[in-house]
Design a protein that fits this description.
single chain, alpha/beta, two-stranded antiparallel ribbon, disordered C terminus
């Protein structure tokens, strides 16, 4: 029997790699190692997706990739969906929902042991409401039009080469050989070509051709999605929620942002502000019981309807059993956090201070959940009652975690508590 397979499913605007840039940065090797340390040999596989296609089409792309990597021949399957990738997974596994009519979907679902969603907009995101507006759609169309225009591609390639040349001008100075511009040039700019098969143009072409997911992740649409998509009783579902400090409090007392990080931080502030605008007619479910306890335990600030990770409201990310909550922005958890000597490693400077220690501990916790689900399914068979949405975990008290630590003092929490509401 083939080994267990774990699939990493990217979210909205997701990709596998551009040049040296990858969506799940160092996640595959980190998770494989963590699973091996726990006695489970598994292949961790990063999945391609349609960056802005409808959830149905994205789920079908996921199905095809699982089949193409012989997931149907594996001992068992586990899915980890980041952002809207979590919705793809839920749709693919939902009993009674047919993404395709050939029966392969059901076969894969029966082999699936766990589905972990991370930073997923289970109840929508106001950011999608903005991009579904006339202004938002215009922004996307202008950006995507470069993929279908020879002039647009030529302009971008010319700018990329000019910036790469600029990055090399000061290389004779030892202290200027690894600047943020040098890193961007080496990772991406020097690799961009005029070929229509270039990964950048293929990505933008897909965005231009299909933007169906934008309207589907609004709060209104997810209200319908949740009424129709149900959990498969034999799969262990859990969610991980992310929350970033609210700007400008996030940047108080932190290191200087620097020339490159300042505009990136400005983008994060804009995204965070848009995401904080909850739809009054479609409020997020109020966490209770264990969900509320996990939020209070794990986060160094209180959570309300404005709390978010820069892309998705924190309360919208909770679905069923809340495995963990972590102070991080939307991309920190997939390895896009700040590392020494890598200014471009943090695309959303949020001030959350998520680092290597938190990254290792988080994916260790994910490995614990996969191993637990694998063993529990093997011991109990197809017990249909154990993992229904919202059910209390059947595996006893929550195990100790590297994140277990005393909660910060009230003074450390004041950045959220004292912020005036609009």
């Amino acid at each position: 029997m083939a080994r267990t397979k774990v699939y990493l499913v990217p979210g909205f605007f997701g990709f596998t790699s551009f040049g040296a840039l990858s969506y799940f940065h160092r996640v595959s090797e980190t998770l494989e190692e963590a699973l091996a340390d726990r006695g489970l040999e598994a292949d961790v596989i990063e999945c391609p997706t349609q960056p802005s296609g409808s959830i149905t089409r994205r789920a079908d792309r996921l199905r095809k990739h699982v089949l193409g990597t012989r997931g149907d021949e594996s001992e068992s399957i586990h899915f980890i969906g980041h952002s809207t990738g979590g919705l793809d997974v839920r749709l693919l596994l939902s009993p009674g929902v047919r993404v395709v009519r050939d029966g392969s979907q059901e076969g894969l679902a029966r082999k699936t042991r766990s589905a972990i969603t991370m930073s997923t907009p289970h109840h929508g995101t106001p950011l999608a409401t903005f991009f579904a507006s006339v202004q938002g759609r215009h922004l996307l169309e202008v950006a995507a039009s470069h993929a279908t225009s020879l002039h647009g591609r030529a302009t971008i390639v010319a700018w990329a080469r000019a910036l790469s040349a600029l990055a090399r001008l000061d290389d004779f100075i030892p202290s200027r050989r690894n600047t943020p511009l040098d890193q961007l040039s080496n990772a991406l700019l020097r690799r961009v070509t005029m070929s229509k098969r270039d990964a950048v143009w293929l990505f933008l072409h897909e965005v231009s051709a299909d933007q169906g997911i934008i309207v589907q992740i609004t709060p209104e649409s997810l209200n319908l999605f949740n009424a129709m998509v149900v959990d498969r009783p034999t799969v262990a579902y859990s969610s991980i929620a992310t929350a970033a400090p609210r700007p400008p409090f996030a940047y108080q007392g932190t290191e200087a942002l620097g020339v490159l990080r300042t505009p990136m931080a400005a983008i994060f502030v804009t995204l965070h502000t848009l995401t904080a605008r909850m739809h009054k007619q479609y409020p997020y479910p109020v966490p209770e019981g264990e969900q509320a306890a996990v939020l209070a335990d794990r986060l160094p600030f209180p959570v309300d309807d404005r709390t978010n990770d820069g892309i998705v409201p924190t309360l919208s990310q909770i679905e069923g059993r809340l495995l963990h909550a972590v102070a991080a922005d939307h991309l920190d958890v997939v390895g896009q956090f700040r590392r020494e000597g890598e200014p471009l490693s943090d695309w959303l400077p949020s001030g959350a201070h998520f680092g290597e220690e938190e990254f290792q501990a988080l994916w260790g916790l994910v490995a614990d959940e996969i191993v637990r689900a694998q063993h529990e399914r093997a011991e109990s068979g197809d017990d249909a009652s154990k993992h229904r949405a919202g059910a209390a975990p059947s595996h006893g008290p929550r195990p100790a975690s590297p994140f277990d630590a005393p909660r910060p003092a009230a003074a450390a929490r004041r950045g959220h508590d004292d912020e005036p509401r609009n």
